[in-house]
Every structure is written in structure tokens, then in C-alpha cells.
Design brief:
The complex is a heterodimer of chains A (about 120) and B (about 110). With about 120 residues, chain A is an all-beta fold. Chain A is built from no helices and 11 strands.
Chain lengths: ~120, ~110
């Protein structure tokens, strides 16, 4: 079974430029998550999708970040414009469902390491 | 605020030593508990998980963890570490009281010396 796929793996941009990250979850997983992981810290949730609906985006900086999950499968996370403080690893994860219980086990992709100069 | 604490930021052991990494959380009620591992240059991988039942759970590669509800702890253990266990280890908690978010600790870097 293929895991969570993300691209690109690395991205270097100058501040104020836009950037986009793509994620393809594990087949059959209805719930998709985007996390940000700063150096030396654990991942922090940015947004959670149930199928194509964003059900938890309370941690997403909406002035510059946006996300979409068209057709309830692939997802794109965008930053526009990027700032120096956005340098981090952006992780995508998926699970069968959300909530508590075994079906909420999250599986992570390799991440995109973003460097903003 | 609800949180997950990993007390050791960096642990250095020699091969064959025993390992215990601490994890404490501050959530009440029903919790699901996880340990993830990130080997150098690789993505986060699930090591083990606890949902209910036997509080001693066994994971991959000889790791185990014990859920002690009264101490709000979920410590990771391995009786004899190998050089290949060098990695960063993250404890994570999913609680009904936290809108089902998976909250991670800050991680523990384990270095095993050959």
C-alpha cells in the first residue's frame, strides 16, 4: 500500500513569494491533515479535512495561508506571501477517520522542507 | 493549557543499554496515545499506539510503552537499544477533550553509540 505522498520535498524561495505544497493521502483515507514542524519541535496542526470539508482550521494563519481539498482526495496548501518565519517542514498526514479510536491513526508523508530567504 | 511533555530533549546511550523515554500529558478523559519515530532523513513513522485495554502495548522493533492513567504518563521503553535506534522520538496524544487534535511533544533525540 502506498503511503502519503508529498511534493516537492524541498523548496527555497525569497520572502514575499508564493509557494504551494501538494499532498496525496493514503487511498481510502477520508481525513487529511496539514502540520507545520519547526526545528526542534513536534508537529503542530494547521488544518484538518473530513473529505473535502475543512473541519478544523483554527490554527491556520488565514491572512496568508490557504488550503483546499478538491474532490476529497488530494490537497494543496498555499502560502502567499511567504515570510521568513514560515521556514519549517510542512507535513501532510491522513487517517481513515478522525475522532478517538483505532481508525484515527495518522500516517505521515515525508514533508516539504521550506526555506524562506 | 493542555499539553504533552517529553522531559528529555537528548538522550545518549551505548548499544545494549536499556531505554526509557518519558511522556506526560495534561488531558483529562479518554485519550489515545502514540509514539512516532523519525529516523535521520526519513518521515515520521508510527512506533506504537494505545487506545484501550492492556496498558502495556508492544510496537515495532522491540519497543513497548506503558500507559499509567494515574500518572498521565505513556513512557517508551526498550530493553536493549541498537545503533539503528538513533532517531528522534515523538509522543502524541489525541483526546476527546481537545477536539480530537493530535498534539505532539517536542521530541527526544536518541543517539546510540556503537
Amino acid at each position: 500500500e502506498a503511503g502519503v505522498v508529498q511534493s516537492p520535498r524541498y523548496k527555497i524561495i525569497e520572502k514575499k513569494q508564493p509557494v504551494a505544497f501538494w499532498c496525496n493521502p493514503i487511498s481510502g483515507h477520508n481525513t487529511l491533515y496539514w502540520y507545520r514542524q519547526n526545528l526542534g519541535q513536534g508537529p503542530e496542526l494547521l488544518i484538518r479535512y473530513e473529505n473535502e470539508e475543512a473541519v478544523d482550521d483554527s490554527q491556520l494563519p488565514k491572512d496568508r495561508f490557504s488550503a483546499e481539498r478538491l474532490k476529497g482526495v488530494d490537497s494543496t496548501l498555499k502560502i502567499q506571501p511567504a515570510e521568513l518565519g514560515d521556514s519549517a517542514v510542512y507535513l501532510c498526514a491522513s487517517s481513515l477517520t478522525s475522532g478517538t479510536g483505532p481508525r484515527n491513526t495518522q500516517y505521515f508523508g515525508p514533508g516539504t522542507r521550506l526555506t524562506v530567504l | 493549557a493542555q499539553s504533552v511533555s517529553q522531559h528529555n530533549h537528548h538522550v545518549i546511550l551505548s548499544e545494549a543499554a536499556s531505554l526509557e523515554l518519558g511522556c506526560n500529558y495534561s488531558y483529562g478523559g479518554t485519550v489515545n496515545l502514540f509514539w512516532y519515530v523519525q529516523y535521520p532523513g526519513q518521515h515520521l513513522q508510527l512506533l506504537l499506539k494505545y487506545f484501550s485495554g492492556d496498558p502495556l502495548v508492544k510496537g515495532i522493533k522491540g519497543f513497548e510503552a506503558e500507559f499509567i492513567k494515574s500518572k498521565f504518563s505513556f513512557n517508551l521503553r526498550k530493553p536493549s537499544v541498537q545503533w539503528s535506534d538513533t532517531a528522534e522520538y515523538f509522543c502524541a496524544v489525541n483526546a476527546a477533550s481537545s477536539a480530537r487534535q493530535l498534539t505532539f511533544g517536542s521530541g527526544t533525540q536518541l543517539t546510540v553509540l556503537p
